[in-house]
Amino acid sequence: MVVxxxxxxxxxxxxxxxxxxxxxYIRYTLYSMGVFEAGATALGLVATAADSAAWxxxxxxxxxxxxxxxxxxxxxRCLAHYLDAGAGAERAYGPDRLVLAYCAATCLALAATGGxxxxxxxxxPAMGLTVQLAGFGAGPLALARPGRRAFRxxxxxxxxxxTALVASGTPGGPLAGLSATMVVLAAVMAGTYRTSAWMxxxxxxxxxxxxxxxxxxxxxxxxxxxxxxxxxxxRNLSVIALKSELAARLAVRGxxxxxxxxxxxxxxxxxxxxxxxEVVRGYRAAGLHAELxxxxxxxxxxxxxxxxxxxxxxxxxxxxxxxxxxxxxWVVREGTTNVLRxxxxxxxxxxLRLAEGTAVLEMExxxxxxxxxxxxxxxxxxxxxxxxxxxxGGTLGAGPAAGGGxxxxxxxxxxxxxxxxxxxxRP
Length: 427
Prior knowledge:
Layout: H1 2-15, H2 18-47, H3 54-82, H4 87-93, H5 95-118, H6 128-141, H7 147-167, H8 172-253, H9 257-284, H10 288-301, E1 305-310, H11 322-342, E2 347-355, E3 358-365, H12 380-391, E4 395-400, E5 407-414
Parallel strand pairs: 1-2
Antiparallel strand pairs: 2-3, 3-5, 4-5
Helix pairs in contact: 2-3, 2-6, 2-8, 3-5, 3-6, 5-6, 5-7, 6-7, 6-8, 7-8, 8-9, 10-11, 11-12
Organism: Streptomyces boetiae
Pfam family, one: HisKA_3
InterPro entries: HATPase_C_sf (IPR036890), Sensor_HK_TwoCompSys (IPR050482), Sig_transdc_His_kin_sub3_dim/P (IPR011712)
């Protein structure tokens, strides 16, 4: 059962995005500090077991294990609170009381170790355990409070450890060495915990900023299209409204000029219809080169590195038939939208080449997510692309790239597009 759980966890990590992977790596690295502390304490006690009382070794082991377990729990709670994700957990579990309990457990473990050494129940080398208890104990406490208060709180186990060393009667030379080691270890652990939490917060903010940039890029494109529509239709609609009002007044008076005004309205309406079709046609059937440049700009604005590779001038104007160029332009547009909305990509590569009478377009990004109840590429957007490509004799492939870790979208369009209703066979 443990093996199955481990396999499921590994699959979940491999299927997660970059942000989730970094979170899991840093979180479990901090949690593993408690395991490392318990293991180091156990090795130290085993090394001194021959010269120590069995009950003292067992008691010190139990206290150290409780201290390490409480440290892992405190790390989890304080890290969630630091990342503004654990407000509910804070109210439910009371991290303030957990902090007090951890400080008490640390002081108790240090006092028990020092007292056992002073009483002769533990061998003198066991005083090295105070360095571990105090040094590792400073890490979780560095997350328990904001700013300088956190480091003042992290100094509590160090002061308790120094007190235990002095009370146990440790000689001057070893006392100075153990004290210096304790202070350095505590500073390293406190800085490691605090810096790790700060990195996670920065990653969360960068991820949120990237999503915002993606939405702004899409919104900017919508505003551009709306501006073009306004520029085309605004004046004509105003003229139509005025001439219609004038024609109505003339009709009430029985003037034959009303017919002329309505004829003019009809002409302007048809002209507006023609202009709006040109705007929509330009938006839908933009050149492939323009689509590639636009996709690169949108992705880079969203914080995703984008590289476009065109082989043999395949992306140059006129290099492809109009129907093939329009279909591939739709692939670039839909693929860019999918990267922005459905991937945690840091890099996207677009490759366009000609191979044996076929134009091949590949879009590969490194932000593939695990599919949720459906096969990759089963969305309505890709289904629409398949329909568009099939109309010009092309095909679309979508799924994990060879080697895994990235998502590959591949579109193939023949340079000689079949006519509608043709059998598809060529002489």
